User: Fold this.
Amino acid sequence: MSFSDLGLSDPVLRAVAESGYTEPTPIQEQAIPVVLMGRDILGSAQTGTGKTASFTLPMIDILAAGRAKARMPRSLILEPTRELAAQVAESFDRYGKYHKLTKALLIGGESLTEQVKEIDRGPDVLIATPGRLLDLFERGRLLLTDVKILVIDEADRMLDMGFIPDVERIVSLLSRMRQTLFFSATMPPEIRRLADAFLINPKELAVDPPATPAETVAQGLLVVNPSDGRRPGGGQREKRAALRQLLHQEEVKNALIFCNRKRDVGILHRSLQRHGFDAGLLHGDMPQPARMDMLDKFKDGQVTLLVCSDVAARGLDIPQMSHVFNFDVPSHAEDYVHRIGRTGRAGREGRAFTIATPEDGKYLSAITRLIGKDIPRITLDGVETGDLDEAAERRGRRRRGRGDRQHEAAKPEKPARAKSRRDGDRRGGDGKTAEPRGSRTKVKRGADEPVVGMGDHVPAFLLREPPTPKKP
Ligand code: AMP
Assistant:
């Protein structure tokens, strides 16, 4: 099938051709004609499937038929992160280059005044993260009653990040007379419930997730041998040395280097700079202008290595990335696929290396199960390799109850607001707890504090008077 069979206008087809796309991806093939018909959509698709164009292309044609009014946008795209919102805005510009549509990008961390100006100009499309949108609404800066098309993108990520109450509030402000396009990579019950509430007779579409890393990504696994024994979280020095050696011997044009924790992003970044590498950093606690600035520098090639966390780098579309390095083995197997999927995009070749310690055995076996094959082991001259600890899985399971310093005590990076609203966390669905784990482990007890073995509960049998022994 070709793009011209989907019912798109000539100017949109021209912009698509200039983007270098020759044929639609499966989600585009399925979604575009349905959106053009005005139907609601419930789409199971994640980033990397061409999902963005599947809703922006038909939206551009639908919006071309009308005219915007000041402060009353005609369509709204909700995104969970600022980076994703900015990326969708870029796509809108690219695909809409032959149309005179206007957009406003409303994301946290950027100047409110500029965003208010954009709204006042009367945008055809608002692309927003939920918090900033509500903020501007509550300040009386925009009206949402004229929104005729609503896109909720990455709904499960919104759930992970605690945004669902905001999304529900936003939807309650819109007219029922609208078309809703709802996308989520996974469909846990909470997401289904929302879809049922927001959509009317939707067309359900599903495309396979890119569950296996692109064939064009060459993968390698290096297991270092920690000099500080097998204590959890050990081997950091060896991992840094191994990474430096890999960076020297690989032909790295540009690379993302993933850490599991924000704190380690900072440590590794400083270490790489001290060793003379051209490295930047990206994590969720950085102010938004600094994040955008760093991304621009990385995209322009002014910074070669970007040390980052999963949240900050999720869904980033940086074409022509030569390498991805996992400085830490991700504790959720699907993050491995997301991470290494940043390279080898659109049929290009990419290389992805993972640095592990023996303790990572359990996480690596989950990854192997997900991708359906082993990651080939590599060795480096002068780097002593370790063996994956086969018993780690069993120990890990036991330790989960107590907290594991490397993977479990580390609070996964989440925006601050996620704390109170994590009851439906997607990761809770696979039997693992959704709460930041290990938060119980770091309590230091003073010598004079009583040790209470059973919490407040004292079993009834301990409170009963012992029976008086019968006299013989
Ligand atoms: P997305 O899933 O929307 O994040 O898109 C992933 C990547 O695929 C982006 O780099 C898009 O530019 C690219 N892309 C989208 N549609 C197509 C297509 N039909 N052919 C080739 N690449 C595409």
In short: The first helix runs from residue 10 to 18.
